[in-house]
């Protein structure tokens, strides 16, 4: 079986954006270099725009700099449109403790159909029903 594709959730992406030379950004880059398939739902742009102003103010970083970092990281990620995994959304909603995370689960379930398994990379493992996901060949891991 091939290496599992990796779904990167928003908190991991934000950690890399906020510290582009830090641990999380390095992990994502190393995964990319060794050929890992890294995926995000394409609605990640909406999520990022939704929190951009607040994030820039809270971290005292110019919004333009954050956008630049975000776009740079997206270059190593494959964006998947919601149409490709929408059929898994209802099931995904039952596999998370936070409804905002259901698109990541739906995307991972979609990827298991193609690759046999998948990984969700997150710093918020408690938001996912890990045991139930593992039964569906989706692992939830920290970077």
Q: How would you name the CATH homologous superfamily?
A: 5'-nuclease
Mean pLDDT: 95
Molecular shape: globular
Question: DSSP helix count?
Answer: 8
Order of helices and strands: EHHEHHEHHHEHE
**Low-confidence blocks of residues:** none
Major β-sheet strand ordering = 3-2-1-4-5
Give the termini distance in whole angstroms. 22 Å
β-strand number: 5
> Helicity range of the residues?
40-55%
Calculate Rg over CA atoms: 15 Å
CATH domain topology: Rossmann fold
Main sheet makeup: 5 strands, parallel
Could you describe the 3D structure shown?
Helix 1 packs across helix 4 (63-74). The chain has a 5-stranded parallel sheet with strand order 3-2-1-4-5. The chain has one domain: 5'-nuclease (Rossmann fold). The protein has 143 residues and is α/β, with parallel strands linked by helices. The mean pLDDT is 95. The protein is 54% helix and 13% strand. The chain is built from 8 helices and 5 strands. Helix 8 (130-135) links the parallel strand 4 and strand 5. The longest helix is centred in the middle third of the chain and has 16 residues, at 44-59. It starts with 5 loop residues before the first strand and ends with a strand.
């Amino acid at each position: 079986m091939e290496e599992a594709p990796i779904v990167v959730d928003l908190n991991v992406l934000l950690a890399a954006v906020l510290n582009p030379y830090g641990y999380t950004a390095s992990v994502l880059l190393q995964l990319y270099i060794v050929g890992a398939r890294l995926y995000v739902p394409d609605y990640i742009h909406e999520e990022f725009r939704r929190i951009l102003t607040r994030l820039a103010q809270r971290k005292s970083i110019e919004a333009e700099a954050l956008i630049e970092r975000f776009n740079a990281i997206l270059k190593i990620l494959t964006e998947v449109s919601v149409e490709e995994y929408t059929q898994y959304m209802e099931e995904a909603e039952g596999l998370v403790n936070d409804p905002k995370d259901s698109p990541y689960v739906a995307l991972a379930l979609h990827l298991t159909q193609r690759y046999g398994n998948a990984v969700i990379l997150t710093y918020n493992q408690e938001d996912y029903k890990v045991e139930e996901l593992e039964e569906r060949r989706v692992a939830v891991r920290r970077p």
